[in-house]
């Protein structure tokens, strides 16, 4: 799945009403004990009866192009299984 900066992605779920947050997490690439590219990005989210729609910020300094894991968290604080998404150049 690809989501452009400033774009949206719809993810279907039967449990949309219980989802409280959505985040992108950049994969780790550690060199010399430091990973200067690691980040987590909170996403704006809208719920519907069929799922959630997330919006990726359009700032390239905040969201560099590349692969991220998308996680959602429910009202109990439990994270979902991650899903790989690409933010293209």
Please provide a written account of the structure.
The structure is a single chain. The protein is mostly beta strands. The chain has one domain (8-87): Immunoglobulin-like. The protein contains no helices and seven strands. The chain has strands at 8-12, 19-25, 40-42, 44-47, 51-55, 66-74, 83-87. Strands 3-2-6-7 form a four-stranded antiparallel sheet, with no helix packed on it. A hairpin with an 8-residue loop joins β6 (66-74) and β7 (83-87). It starts with 7 loop residues before the first strand and ends with a strand. The mean pLDDT is 93.
Summary, kept brief:
The protein is 0% helix and 43% strand.
Using brief descriptors, characterize the structure shown:
89 residues, mainly beta, Immunoglobulin-like, four-stranded antiparallel beta sheet, three-stranded antiparallel beta sheet
Write the layout of secondary structure elements.
Layout: E1 8-12, E2 19-25, E3 40-42, E4 44-47, E5 51-55, E6 66-74, E7 83-87
Antiparallel strand pairs: 1-5, 2-3, 2-6, 4-5, 6-7
Task: Give unreliable regions as ranges.
Answer: none
Order of helices and strands: EEEEEEE
Over all CA atoms, what is the radius of gyration?
A: 13 Å
Number of helices: 0
Structural class: mainly beta
Number of strands: 7
Question: Roughly how many Å apart are the termini?
Answer: 14 Å
CATH superfamily: Immunoglobulins
Proportion of residues in extended strands: 35-45%
Q: Characterize the main sheet.
A: 4 strands, antiparallel
How many distinct folded domains? 1
Q: Which bin fits the share of residues in helices? A: under 10%
């Amino acid at each position: 799945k690809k989501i452009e900066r400033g774009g949206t992605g719809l993810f279907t779920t039967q449990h949309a009403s219980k989802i409280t947050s959505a985040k992108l997490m950049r994969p780790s690439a550690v060199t010399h004990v430091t990973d200067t590219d690691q980040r987590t990005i909170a996403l704006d989210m809208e719920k519907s009866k069929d799922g959630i729609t997330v919006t990726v910020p359009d700032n390239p300094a905040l969201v560099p192009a590349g692969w991220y894991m998308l996680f959602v968290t429910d009202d109990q604080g439990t994270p979902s299984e991650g899903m790989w998404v690409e933010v293209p150049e």
